[in-house]
Amino acid sequence: MGFKQIMFKAAHLCKQHAPEIMIGASILTGAAALYFVARGTLKLEEILDDHAERVDDVKDKMGDIESSDHPEEIVEYKKELAKEYVKTGGKIALAYAPAAGLAGASVVLSISAHGIMRKRLATSLAALESVTAAFEAYRQRVKDRYGEDVERDILTGRHTEVVAVETTDKKGNVKMVDKKMNLVDPSLPSEYARYYSASTCDIFYITNTNDGCGRVYNEEFLKTQEQVANLKLRSQGFLFLNDVYDMLGYDRTDYGQLVGWLDNGDGDGYVDFRIALVEEGVNENDDKWLLDFNVDGVIVDKI
Question: Exposed, middle or buried: residue 58 (CB in 10 Å: 0-12, 13-18, 19+)?
């Protein structure tokens, strides 16, 4: 690698990590400013003592001016005193000048780093919003051509498999029978979506006599939480995806604090879990529901 390439790479790395470099420099200059403040304070007593001596000298030279019958002497006396105060002020300013300069530089570096991060965040949010809009438009085109059910099957990787299931006949004999079951890809169709099942329901310690939530309860519970989310959206005017995750017992995410819903925004303006039973288990407690939240997009910069 040539010298020119090394310089270009170094310049690129400095630009890429400019906010971190500026914050580090801001901390260092702030610490240096504190040092020079302490150093200037140590000089302050000496400056003030010297000022007091020079003022006394002026008073001694001029004598008892206040009782003088010559106004020009009083004016001269005041000029001499003013000069001494100006000199002292200059010395004090000079003593604290390094501290003031470093403190100002620290503030400028912090503000500049913040400005760069704000611009980068705005760019990232715009890119995320653009990708989300393109993906939603693509999904809508698939729905229009093939129907909503087919689009959901493609999205979730839903497919039919023959599974051996253990059953008990009327005589109490246990045997294995083949059963066709609809299964989905375990990976999520999007980073916003979540799968809901009896294991998720158990988080809330609500079970029936069969040690599970059951299909009816699952569906009713999800619809109720959807209504609660809409009420919250109406009351505060916005709702983050993380708020919905909290309601359903899911872990919060970084992007969940960026995207969500606005009551009077450009999106749907309402919360729709888009609840779909995508996988029927051997029994109802093994069912898997897809929650494909209809987020309006990035809202953190629009509240």
Answer: middle
How many angstroms separate the CA atoms of 229 and 88, rounded?
67
Most confident among 130-139, 166-175, 233-242, 292-301 (mean pLDDT): 233-242
| Contacts by 22-27, CB closer than 8 A, 24 or more apart | 22/109, 22/110, 22/112, 22/113, 22/116, 23/109, 23/110, 23/113, 25/109, 26/105, 26/106, 26/107, 26/109, 26/110, 26/113, 27/106
| Of 17-26, 189-198, 233-242, minimum mean pLDDT range | 189-198
pLDDT in tens, 43-64: 888 888 888 888 777 777 666 5
- Residues contacting residue 298 through CB under 8 Å, at least 6 positions apart: 125, 128, 129, 132, 258, 259
Task: Look at the block and give the residue holding tokens 């438009």.
Answer: 137
Contacts of 265-268 spanning 24+ positions with Cβ under 8 A = 265/296, 265/299, 265/302, 266/296, 266/297, 267/294, 267/295, 267/296, 267/297, 268/294, 268/296
Sheet of 288-291, strand order? 194-197, 288-291, 275-279
- Using DSSP bridges, classify how beta strands 238-240 and 297-298 pair: parallel, antiparallel or unpaired: unpaired
Query: Do residues 277 and 291 touch, judged by C-beta distance below 8 A?
Result: no
Residue 266, pLDDT above cutoff 60: yes
Query: Do 261 and 230 contact (CB within 8 A), yes or no?
Result: no
Question: Who's near 82: CB < 8 A, 6+ residues apart?
Answer: none
**Look-up of token digits 């029994």:** 283
Assessment of whether the complete model's pTM goes beyond 0.70: no
